[in-house]
């Protein structure tokens, strides 16, 4: 797909996506391309700089994605996750079993973290056992 910056004869700017340059030309010739603001079919392509993807450009884009407020929110979430991890027992693969024991009064109530498949998590929730996944934060996967 090719994205074109377009303009109508009334000066409205907008964009359109086409399969190819020929596709735009064909649709414009058949008067299928119209300005969304005024409906004019007199539409032309505007000059565009090519978008070349480079490693440097990708790195710069990644660094600009999160604004200050988002970074602060992520930091607060990270603090919360760290607090949960510090104050819970990591039971690993035994999580569903241990959660059930606590829920049914067979084990002392305490905070748990561990692993459960999607099916196991659904089954726990259907049994009325309150669980929640720990979020995976951006730095956790990079």
3D architecture notes:
Helix 4 (95-103) links the parallel strand 4 (89-92) and strand 5. The mean pLDDT is 85. The chain is elongated and about 75 Å long. The protein is of the alpha+beta class and 142 residues long. The longest helix is centred in the middle third of the chain and has 19 residues, at 68-86. It has two domains: 2-45, no CATH class; 67-131, no CATH class. It has helices at residues 21-29, 55-64, 68-86, 95-103, 118-126, 138-141, and strands at residues 2-8, 13-18, 43-45, 89-92, 112-114. It has a three-stranded antiparallel beta sheet. The protein has a two-stranded parallel sheet with strand order 4-5. It contains six helices and five strands; from the N terminus they run E-E-H-E-H-H-E-H-E-H-H. InterPro entries: DUF1178 (IPR009562). This is DUF1178 family protein. It comes from Sinorhizobium mexicanum.
């Amino acid at each position: 797909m090719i994205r074109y910056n377009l303009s109508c004869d009334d000066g409205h700017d907008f964009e359109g996506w086409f399969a190819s340059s020929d596709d735009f030309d064909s649709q414009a010739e058949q008067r299928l391309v119209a300005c969304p603001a005024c409906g004019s079919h007199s539409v032309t392509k505007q000059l565009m700089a090519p978008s070349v993807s480079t490693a440097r450009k990708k790195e710069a884009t990644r660094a600009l994605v999160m604004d200050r407020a988002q970074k602060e929110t992520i930091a607060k979430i990270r603090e919360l996750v760290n607090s949960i991890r510090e104050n819970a027992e990591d039971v690993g693969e035994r999580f569903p079993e241990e959660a059930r024991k606590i829920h049914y009064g067979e084990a002392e109530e305490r905070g748990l973290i561990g692993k459960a498949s999607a099916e196991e998590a659904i089954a726990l929730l259907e049994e009325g056992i309150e669980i929640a996944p720990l979020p995976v934060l951006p730095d956790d996967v990079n």
